[in-house]
Amino acid sequence: MNNVKLNKSLIPHLSLAAIIFAGTFCSSDIFASDISQSLRNNTEQDSDSEDYLEVGLMIRVRDSQTFKSSNGRGSYTSTSLFINGSYTWNNLFIENYSESGHGLVLGYNAFASDDWSLDLMATTGWLKVSFENDGRYSPDKNDELMVGGRLSGYVGNNIVQFAINQDATGDHNGTTASALIGRNWQLRNWNFHGIIGVEYASAKLNDYYVGVSDENAARWDNLDAYKAGESVSFSTELGVTYPISEDWVFRATGRAVTLPDAITDSPRRRSKKSVATSFHTSISYVF
Amino acid sequence: MIFLKKVANTDKTSKQVLALKFSTLLCTTFLFIATSVNAAAVSQGSEILNNVIVSKVMPSNAQPLAQLKVTPKPCVALRKGQKCYLEVNFSWQHPQVSDYCLVNTTTSKIIKCWQQQGHGQFNLDFQSKLTNDFSLRHKASNKDLASTQIPVAWVYKSSKRAKSTWRLF
Predict the structure, then answer these.
(1) Most B CBs within 10 Å, among A40, A50, A180, to test the B interface
(2) Cis peptide before B74 (omega within 30 of 0)
(3) ipTM
(4) Which of B85, B153, B162 minimises the CB distance to A246?
(5) Which residue of chain B comes nearest to A254, CA vs CA?
(6) How far are the Cα atoms of A76, A272, B60 from residue A135, in angstroms, in the given order?
(7) List of residues 6+ apart from A4 with CB closer than 8 A
């Protein structure tokens, strides 16, 4: 049953992903003549992250599905402070990037070559900055501790990354697996980047966040029991980074994430939007 | 000193305030010294006027002969190793009308020459990964009459990419 639902839900999402994919790479072609620094040329092929710290102020605008328990707002604007930084000691690292959509990450670089790097890591929800609501957020379920790995590779002018993560809290034992490809290009001092990706989420994980147990369905009049299946979703991101001075950086990023039927079919959801979008802009001070 | 004595007689909170102010004073002094040292290191015989480094070559009678300045600066790129882009304006003057050239001494290339002029301006689309030095010279000479530079700086001092910035999920 879940497989049928998965295949059915993939059709509109694949169409959207195809449009996003085409749009992203057509854009890249347009800017291709302006690419003065490719990924390979402007970076060392080194597995270590840069040790640095920055604090910033971010404004987020997002449009996404809503909870039945919420006030019905599908979009809103918020302002928040954020911290970005990383520190590497031997092969151990600690990092936090607000743009990643993750919280604090602790990891170990297990393998590194000129073009590939493998990290084993634990991803937490601490210091997490949320963008679009992909369905995996609930005020009473914000604990997050995932363990897994990510394999990053430099292929031509692109960066590819494969990641797999498993819940370590024991709350749901869910699993995610993702693959993405990204590239950047420099137009004078403006640094543009584009990323597209696909993610698989297990039924256990989806059900933890959007499922409705028989007990809860019996407790609430307007809530039917629901067991979520596994899902596949697609994402894209386009952004720009500009160095205002040696210490200040400006960023602006737009993102879109498809919402699978496993999420939108949940009776806990008020709207049935199939795409969640967000835009955020920030200014940060780099120490 | 009077201020210090007065504060010394007050309570612990005031001492902390004093310590804070003293620290601020020390930091300000340190920054002032550091800025001065930096400015001196940029180009010997330079002075800072409205955040513009003006370079002068001083003759034996201590009268400035030539001036060369460039605005704005520095050029800032996001990451070390990236090419930096900046639209700059050079302006120069010399008390003697003659043939002069603006030279990029880092690349040893002549940017522009003027004939029978005592002053001039030139807009340049600066593009470089490195700090570049510039000089005003007589057309038929390699002697620097005045010098200045466009420093290239970066926000992220390492050329290593923070790989996790590429995560999407």
Answers:
(1) A50
(2) yes
(3) 0.72
(4) B153
(5) B168
(6) 16, 11, 77
(7) none
pLDDT (tens digit, 9 = 90+) per residue, A14-33?
444 443 333 333 333 222 22
The nearest CA of chain B is from the CA of A188 a distance in Å of 6
- CB count within 10 Å of CB B79 equals 22
Alpha-carbon distance A112 to A110, whole Å?
7
* Residue A168 to chain B, least CA–CA distance (Å): 18
Q: Which residue of B lies nearest to A38 if distances are taken between CA atoms?
A: B82
DSSP A121-157: EEEE-TT----S--S---TT----EEEEEEEEEEETT
Are A44 and B159 an interchain contact pair (Cβ–Cβ within 8 Å)? yes
Q: Which residues of A touch B31 (CB under 8 A)?
A: none
Inter-CA distances, A55 with A50, A80, A98, A278, A286, Å = 16, 11, 10, 21, 7
Identity at A32, one-letter amino acid code: A
Q: What percent of chain A has pLDDT above 70? A: 76
| Residue appearing with tokens 């689309």 | B125
Do the beta carbons of residue A242 and residue A252 sit within 8 Å?
no
Q: Which residues of B touch A188 (CB under 8 A)?
A: 85
Give whole-number Cα distances, B3 to A203, B14, B21, B91, in Å.
71, 12, 11, 48
Task: State pLDDT tens for residues A28-53.
Answer: 322 222 222 223 223 444 434 568 89
| Nearest-Cα residue of chain A relative to residue B128 | A188
Burial class (CB in 10 A: 0-12, 13-18, 19+), A190: middle
Do residues A266 and A39 touch, judged by C-beta distance below 8 A? no
Q: Give yes or no for residue B121 having a pLDDT over 70.
A: yes
